[in-house]
Each structure stands twice: as structure tokens, then as C-alpha cells.
Amino acid sequence: MDTVKLLELATPYLEKNDFGVEHTKRVFATAKQNFPVKKECEELALTSIILHDIGGSTVKEQYEKGPQIAKELLKKLGCPDGFIKQVCEIISTHHEHPENPSEPFRILYDSDKIVMFTREEYAFYNARKDFDWNKIIALIYSRQGKQLAEHMLAQRRKDQKLLHDKVLRRKRTFFKQIQQHGDNFSYIIADEDTKEAAVVDSSFNAEEIINLLSVEKLDLKYVINTHGHSDHTAGNTELTSIFPAKIVAHKLSRVNFDVAVEDGDLLTVGRIQIKVIHTPGHTVDSICLLVDNEKLLTGDTLFVGECGRTDLAGGSSKSMYDSLFNKLMKLDDAVEVYPGHDYGVKTSSTIGEEKKFNYTLQPRSLKDFIEFMAEP
Questions:
Q1: 173 forms bridges with which residues in the sheet?
Q2: What is the dihedral angle through the alpha carbons of 307, 310, 314, 318, rounded to the nearest 10 degrees?
Q3: Model pTM greater than 0.85?
Q4: pLDDT tens digits for 255-299?
């Protein structure tokens, strides 16, 4: 029997079922991996597995329509009538539980039950009210099958617990983009459970930042500068005069700071992790901040639809090229981009969107990029 050809013929029918043809493939693989079968029974067992759900999703459909469809398909493959009759008998009874089943029936039955414990199917059955997994295990004929099902059930329950614990541990993050005066953005990042907070680029937005910190009852731990230009650091003194926060900047920065950082450093705010990415180009001390691998605060390195200028003191188009193409564009496309200025058609973006729509990020050689950045 050409089981590959048979599965190909059966697939259009099997795809109409709850789990589609993938269920049949899982049953087939389970049987092959766990239940050695006598050579004289192998063809009947594997054929019955491929065709057991051919009639539809319900037991009634499988019993009433299955044998006729199976007969048609097997005749196309030139199978003898006696063999077809045996297959149809198994298909029309495979949900029953006889005391002394044939080996092909037992292998199909046990494999079909074991597949219920797989990651792909477990949740479907487990969602049913009062579903009893131990009853399913008791129905399995072979000791080996019972042990496998018990092991898989323990693993599924372990997976459930891990997922539950992960949900309980999930951080509640407060994130706010602030624009009170001009086109500069400031940001507040906070752990809502611990109340620890960080401000990124205080700018001209200190009044609104102070108000939000008070309303949300947040404890300001850091004031982080993405670079030393005064339009980004203007509110530092006001914030640190009210809150016991430390100013954070790259070690090459010329502004007054308490904590020096460099590429790859991690800052923690409650359970939130902020990774420092050194991105020189606009200035030598420019940094971007990757928040929990989800949000990227880019300062004046990358804007929505633009990149930072490199013609000011400390600027370098060569460094900007490296920062953009060898660092930021290597991040996942889903990472959200939050710039230092409101220069774009919208206030935030993603790495994927910037790769696609930002004209400054179109593929260029270093030489071409330097020439491009020198254009007026």
C-alpha cells in the first residue's frame, strides 16, 4: 500500500474535520513510533489510521459516510475487496471498545487516544466541562500507551502551571509619551507594581512629567538622557530638585550625570529592563533605549520617516550609518519606535515600518550614505 498516495487522496476529506489532516498525521506518527506491528498486520493498521476519520468530524458521520469514501479511495489504488472490507469494518467501529480487539484496531484506538494529550489537541478537550483525562487513560489498551499518556498529561499540566505562573508574573508597565512644549518628546516608563519609574529626555516637559508622576504615585529612580543637547536635558535640574533621581547618560556625555552607561548596559526599573544601545552619529554620546525588547526610544538617532542630522558638533555620518544599519535595523521588525521629536506623519512607528518607508534607511553603501547625508 502506498500510504503517501492514500494520504494525498484522503486529505481533501480530512481537512474538513476539527483538527484537519494534521490529526491524522499525528495518529500515524504516534503509531509508527510507539507500537511495533507484525508485518502481516502493518498495511491494515496504517491504512485504517489514515482513513479512520474520513467520513467527517462526528462519530455518526465517520460510521455512516466513512466506509463508503474509504472503499472508493482504496478501489482507486487497486486494493482487493477482502482488504477493503477489513478496513471498512475498523472504520465503522473504531470508537467502540471491544474486549479483544485485533492488533490493527488496538493500534489505531490507542494512538487516536494518545494524540488527545498532545499540545495541539489537549486544550480542545480540556476546555470541556468535567472532562476526565483519567477515563481516557483507562480506555487505552496497552500498558505502554497508558504510561505514555500519563507522562504527556503530566507535561501538559506542567505547561499549564508554567503559563499560569508567567501570567501572574507578567509586568504591568506604565508608558507615556509626553509633548507639552514644542516638538520634543519626553517619556515616562514605570513598573505599576513596584512604582519605580524612569524619565527619558526631560526636555521642556518637566511640568507635565511632575504632574503625571504625582498622579500615578510613581517613585522616580532615573532621568535618562539619550544625548547631551539642551533641548533634551532642559528639565533635568527641575526633576532632580524634587525627586531623589539619578541622571543617567553615556560615559562620553558632557552633561552632569550620576550614572555612566555604555553599549549593552542594563538599567532596571522595578522588573522592567532597559538595554542601552550606543548609537553615535548625531552626537558621540547618543544612545537608544530598548525597553523589555518591545519598545525602542531613539532620541535623535532615528525619527519616524527620518534620521538625525550629523552636521552638528560631534556628528558623524559614518557612525550614523553603523548605528542605523548595524544596530537598530538588526532588531526585530515588531519593536516599536518612539523618537525624540515629533517630526513624522505619526508619533511612533516600528522597526519594520521604518525599514519599509523611511527613505534614509533605503539600502546604500557607506560611501553613498555619507554622500546622501551631505546633501542639503
A1: 191
A2: 90
A3: no
A4: 999 999 999 999 999 999 999 999 999 999 999 999 999 999 999
CB burial string 12-22: b at 16+ within 10 A, e below: ebbeebebebe
Contact of 247 with 236, CB cutoff 8 Å? yes
Whole-number Å distance between alpha carbons of 277 and 319: 13
**CB-based contacts of 196, cutoff 8 Å, min separation 6:** 190, 218, 219, 221, 269, 270, 272
Domain-wise residue ranges, the chain: 3-168, 173-374
Largest CA distance in the chain: 92
CATH number of the domain at 3-168, please? Answer: 1.10.3210.50
> What is the rounded distance in angstroms from the CA atom of residue 223 to the CA atom of residue 257?
9
For residues 109 and 168, give the distance between their C-alpha atoms in angstroms, rounded to a whole number. Answer: 39
Identify the CATH assignment for 173-374 out of 3.30.2350.10, 3.40.1190.20, 3.60.15.10, 3.40.50.2300: 3.60.15.10
In this predicted model, what pLDDT tens digit does every residue of 323-352 receive, in sequence order?
A: 999 999 999 999 999 999 999 999 999 999
Parallel/antiparallel/unpaired status of strands 272-278 and 266-269:
antiparallel
